[in-house]
Design brief:
Blueprint: H1 12-25, H2 31-43, H3 48-58, H4 62-71, E1 83-88, H5 91-95, H6 98-109, E2 122-127, E3 139-141, E4 144-146, H7 151-162
Parallel strand pairs: 1-2
Antiparallel strand pairs: 1-3, 3-4
Bound molecules: FE2/S2 (inorganic) cluster.
Length: 170
């Protein structure tokens, strides 16, 4: 992002939605993070124009808004896929085979960490502990956590999501 912000070119509707989010969270103890999180929840990511608009509306330097947006791994300044896959890389899962799981996802989707499939369906990320260490290796797809993963189970889960059906493997 250019350090010198310019007037954002957001649609009227997007601008109104950002105003609504700011109004909802402006009195929170840490409003900026809450606002960025909610705007991303609505639009899927945080564009430069959205960050500039938030900066101007909150009278916070654009560099500070951009700094927060790029610091937290759950926030993204780039569009992500419809399904976000997060493979756990913390120690317990690593010992139980997370590298194999990550390799299976890469092989199945043809993308690397931080990338999105050309059809916009999947984005691949890594994450720290998902809270189910006893049944690692684990990964999360959107808000759903899967454990006891094998390469075959990973393929099955991803193919179900690719068909846009709710995966039912646990
Ligand atoms: S270390 Fe992977 S779920 Fe806890």
């Amino acid at each position: 992002m250019n350090a010198c912000s310019t007037a954002p070119t957001l649609s009227t509707e997007t601008d109104k939605q950002i105003d609504r989010v700011i109004e909802e969270y402006k009195d929170e103890p840490s409003p900026l993070l809450e606002i960025l999180n909610e705007v991303q929840h609505i639009f899927g990511y945080l564009s430069d124009d959205m960050l500039i608009a938030i900066s101007e509306k909150l009278s916070i330097p654009t560099s500070q808004v951009y700094g927060v947006a790029t610091f937290y791994s759950l926030l993204s300044t780039r569009p992500k896929g419809k399904h976000i896959i997060r493979v756990c890389e913390s120690a317990p899962c690593h010992v139980m085979g997370s590298e194999s799981v990550l390799r299976a996802v890469k092989d199945e989707l043809g993308i690397d960490l931080g990338e999105t499939t050309p059809d916009g369906l999947f984005t691949l990320e890594s994450t720290s502990c998902l809270g189910i260490c006893s049944v690692g290796p684990a990964m999360m797809v959107n808000d759903r956590v899967f454990g006891n993963l094998t390469r075959e189970k990973v393929r099955l889960i991803l193919r179900r999501y690719a068909k846009d059906k709710e995966a039912s493997v646990s």
